[in-house]
TrEMBL record:
Its EC number is 1.5.1.1, 1.5.1.25. It is an enzyme of class 1 (oxidoreductase). GO terms for molecular function: pyrroline-2-carboxylate reductase activity; thiomorpholine-carboxylate dehydrogenase activity; thyroid hormone binding. InterPro entries: NAD(P)-bd_dom_sf, ODC_Mu_crystall, ODC_N. Coiled coil: none annotated. GO terms for biological process: thyroid hormone metabolic process. Signal peptide: none annotated. One of its GO terms (cellular component) is cytoplasm. Homodimer. Binds the thyroid hormone triiodothyronine (T3); T3 binding inhibits enzymatic activity. Belongs to the ornithine cyclodeaminase/mu-crystallin family. It catalyses: (R)-lanthionine ketimine + NADPH + 2 H(+) = (3R,5R)-1,4-thiomorpholine-3,5-dicarboxylate + NADP(+); L-proline + NADP(+) = 1-pyrroline-2-carboxylate + NADPH + H(+); L-pipecolate + NAD(+) = Delta(1)-piperideine-2-carboxylate + NADH + H(+); (S)-cystathionine ketimine + NADH + 2 H(+) = (3R,5S)-2,3,5,6,7-pentahydro-1,4-thiazepine-3,5-dicarboxylate + NAD(+). It holds the Pfam family OCD_Mu_crystall. This is Ketimine reductase mu-crystallin.
Amino acid sequence: MAAPPVIIWEHEVERLLHYRELVPRLEEALGKFSRRDSAEVIQPVRNIVPLQKQNGFLALMPAYMENDGVLCTKLVCFYKREDGSTLPAVQATVVLLDPEYGNVKAVIGGEVITDMRTAAVSAISAKLLMRPEAEVLAILGTGKQALSHYRVFTEMFSFKEVRVWSRTREGVARFRHSVSSPVTACVSAEEAVRGADVIVTVTRSTEPVLFGRWVKPGAHVAAVGACRPNWRELDDGLMKEAVVYVDSREGAMSESGDVILSGAEVFAELGDVINGTKPAHREKKTVFKSLGMGVQDAVSAKLVLDQWKAKACQP
Ligand SMILES: NC(=O)C1=CN([C@@H]2O[C@H](COP(=O)(O)OP(=O)(O)OC[C@H]3O[C@@H](n4cnc5c(N)ncnc54)[C@H](O)[C@@H]3O)[C@@H](O)[C@H]2O)C=CC1
Ligand SMILES: O=C(O)C1=NCCCC1
């Protein structure tokens, strides 16, 4: 009989997961995904169940990495909550299975994984697509993703200034209290992004919050919110003039309102740039449209379980 599953909750994940180990694994996984070799990665576009009454969605995100022996699925609910709601915008659990027997090996809290892997992938997009001389980072939104993005971007790069904007003063105040270094609080999204080299959009908005006319030539945008086909964070102007990169083409074509409604062409997946099959247009305006992928959760969860086992074995 298989051993009972290990259960690893959020505070433990927070202790075990570090960007220095996570980022290279995600980069490798993105590259493998874009090779479309079914012995390396099988990851269908996620199944979505609408939760009409609760104004939300349940997404089922399976992934199988045969050569790595990783079989995983995330169950994630996300909601279109109003500001001030005490309920979370995203709730997730990750399940790791043994591909040989099909038994569950581990049940892992999925919120820290979701926050950290999403931010780490945006940071990978910046590493590949921002100009080397980038000095100013702007973050639109001040929730959980804003915080994880701030953490990994300031760990991986040396920005001279970090600007933040939120619709509410309280949002900015809370954010400033949660971070270790000074940030510039901006009263409008336009003020935050004018002249910025890298812009991260991490809002729950369903309408554009970032407009191409505000974005300077050569800037890189990592767009993380707006994960439904009728939701937007970016306007048509930005989508059409930028070179657009995505995590998964299939995901973007079925879920991204910014891609679908603007009619913008998807130039490449991040994995194509990692594999050297498509160029990184650092000199142009670039958009990385993030939607999130099962393989990102799979490698993150495997890392958590490996670290947990290593720590559990220590005397
Ligand atoms: N691409 C990906 O892999 C992932 C995307 N997401 C998405 O990222 C977004 C942010 O997630 P969290 O930080 O966890 O949420 P959160 O609730 O912690 O923060 C959301 C932020 O958006 C702001 N906001 C809400 N409505 C707005 C509007 N109409 N205009 C401007 N700002 C608005 C809030 O004030 C808050 O600062 C969500 O849309 C979520 O679905 C979340 C996880 C993974
Ligand atoms: O990949 C994920 O995890 C999510 N993507 C979009 C919405 C919330 C969670």
